[in-house]
Amino acid sequence: MRLAGKVAVVTGGGSGFGAGIAKRFAAEGARVVVADINEAAAAAVAGEIGETARAVRADVSVSGDVKAMVEAATGAFGRLDILVNNAGYTHRNGPMTEVDEDTFDRIYAVNVKSIYLGAIHAVPVLRAQGGGVILNIASTAGVRPRPGLTWYNGSKGAAITLTRSMAVELAPDRIRVCALNPVAGETGMLHLFMGEDTPEKRAQFRASIPLGRLSTPEDIANAALFLCSDEAGFLTGVCMEVDGGRCI
């Protein structure tokens, strides 16, 4: 059990990558708070995990919700060891000048402000316990941007830079901060990345990935498990591509 005795909060845990991470962490011995803006989805994942999980409705762009999410972990399980900032939002693939202001604001609230709020509310808990791990789910879009996703690309670039900056500042507190940069996968956001979900678009996406397929929640969960486990105890500031070679 690679996470035995650990307590993790996973945002966006009701579906996609977040659900995969939450379930894998639980299988490796962690107690997990599944946080999602969709309360029913969070409850479904927590129910699948069983008594070692709790579901919390949380809008990660709202300070009070993030505070309550952290308190759900400490209240139910007595501690917090791992925060996975996975919740994400994007605009539909298209010209950057056609993205409206409300959508732009929401992208940066969910993809960037959430990391700030997570730090504000989780770091004091981790610091008091003598350390922990923060894992930010960024994207290959922040490393090798795709056309038509300019504002999303920028938000994930910010997540990568925040990860490295946080890692430096929090290292004396024994808080490791890393990121994953997944390539597009079979999640609810795939049709937005493509602009339209057609066999031709999927073929184009797959053709840009040397290993020839999209990512899966299991791929991301495997990498997240490693970075959040004691096996990665000497890694911080690492932004790992989980992309089948796309960023080579």
List keywords for this structure.
alpha/beta; Rossmann fold; 8 helices
Q: Please name the fourth-level CATH homologous superfamily.
A: NAD(P)-binding Rossmann-like Domain
Helix coverage percent = 40-55%
- How many strands in all? 7
Order of secondary-structure elements? EHEHEHEHEHEHHHE
Mean pLDDT: 96
End-to-end Cα distance: 33 Å
Strand order of the largest sheet: 3-2-1-4-5-6-7
CATH fold-level topology: Rossmann fold
Protein name: Short chain dehydrogenase
Keywords: Oxidoreductase, Plasmid
Family: Belongs to the short-chain dehydrogenases/reductases (SDR) family.
GO molecular function: oxidoreductase activity
Would you kindly provide a brief summary of this structure?
Helices cover 46% and strands 15% of the residues. With 248 residues, it is α/β, with parallel strands linked by helices. A 7-stranded parallel β-sheet has the order 3-2-1-4-5-6-7, sandwiched between helices.
Task: Tell me what you see in this structure.
This is Short chain dehydrogenase. With 248 residues, this protein is an alpha/beta fold. Helix content is 46%, strand content 15%. It has one domain (7-240): NAD(P)-binding Rossmann-like Domain (Rossmann fold, 3-Layer(aba) Sandwich). The chain has helices at residues 16-27, 39-49, 63-77, 101-129, 150-170, 190-194, 199-207, 217-228, and strands at residues 7-11, 31-36, 53-57, 82-85, 132-137, 175-182, 239-242. A seven-stranded parallel beta sheet has the order 3-2-1-4-5-6-7, with helices on both faces. Helix 5 (150-170) links the parallel strand 5 and strand 6 (175-182). Helix 3 runs parallel beside helix 4 (101-129) and helix 4 packs parallel to helix 5 (150-170). The chain is globular and about 50 Å long. The model has no long low-confidence stretch (mean pLDDT 96).
